[in-house]
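Amino Acid Chain and Its Fold in Token Form
===========================================
What this section holds: a protein sequence and its matching fold, both as plain text.
Structure line: whole-number tokens from a learned vocabulary of local backbone shapes, matched to residues.
Purpose: to set a sequence beside its fold so the mapping can be learned.
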Amino acid sequence: MKEKERNKYIFSKKCLLILNYLYYINDVSYKDVTFRSFGFHFDPSCNFKVIINSLKNHIHKYIVRIFTSLRGVNIEELDIMGNVNIVKINDIKKFDNFYKPKSSLNIFFDEVSFIAEGYIEGKYFEYTLNNKEKSTFKDDLLHSLNNESNLNNSNESFIEWLMKLYTFKLPTTLVLGAGINCDYGAKDWKGLISSLNNEFYNNNLEGIKETAHYVGDELFVSSKVLKTNGFDVYKSLNKELYLFKEAKSFNDSDSNLYNCVNFIINHKGTNVITYNYDTNLEYLLKKRGILYNTIYDENSFILKESFVNIYHVHGLLPFDKYNESKFTDSLVFTESEYFNLYNNPYTWNISKQLHDFTFNACIFIGISLTDPNMKRLLELSKNPLKFNFIFLKKEKDYKESVFKDLTNYYFTYDLIPIWVNEFNEIGDYLNRI
């Protein structure tokens, strides 16, 4: 996406965020909001439609138009019941060309602050956001909108309301990374690669550091682990995945993976995309009698009566199966394997990720956004009517301004960050959805 198109797209997503917030503070239930991108009677000025089931069980339809300037826009002519007119302006503080609507809802937005005035659900209302805080990424819109709570009877915080809206209305996908196993005592992705690297180089830390100086710190460059010099990478990987000292039992009901199983049980039809090679999720599902499909290559047979499909998009390595080629051949692990996968858009692995990132409500857990391949897929899977969500743990002693800036950074990839102080908070959050 070219920079001009990207900026326009991000502005439209901010407009969607603002509109959702206005419904939230007007006590509209997340269950009663639906978005549509069709049915505009061929009016090219319409961006999308919002359908709301009112408290009296009436269907209210809102036609949303987003304008990047007031040039050529007659707000007075658009003052029709059900119209939502969102206009980009340069500076709210210097803007004085407000038209008081008689039937519509008008929102004037300078990407930092906005003024909303008009009718929502038959009631006239006004709201002004004066966002005075400065940010590296220009604005703290998302952070500012989530500051207030207990404004909606269907949910106490805006982000939680938003998450419930999309997971209630759309197919949902849990996207799991290595961090999902951290509370068991397993290593995250960086820790896993660091440990394998140390073993490969016989703990020659200075040699690892000097090598990294030339090849960089990108994925599987400084950490490239190959089956050479008698080093069995798959045997060592098996040990790291399964033979670690447990900090918590897999049967512990307050672990994040256990709570993911709770989520799957409570949200039938949930898909799972996992970048992990282990079978920990399958183990917990089996213990609780949940029928599942495990997909790790193109030969998988998917039973429709299964409760959940688990897509191991980087391959699968069950315990002590490191000598079986059907599993080791499925792994995307070395640098060349990553290059081969992410340069081939027609593989099932890539198509599955692109589909779900685009059309499903995705919840990312145990994943950072350091992998450029992940960013590339998110960039390709833009959808102007939805958001995805990512759980992130706050590092101690980091300034709050860092998390505000990162919130805006993640937003540029259609991700709504949910910051937690401890990993066990993720399970509590999932149980409320």
User: Anything to note?
Assistant: The chain has two domains: 3-156, 172-432. The mean pLDDT is 88.
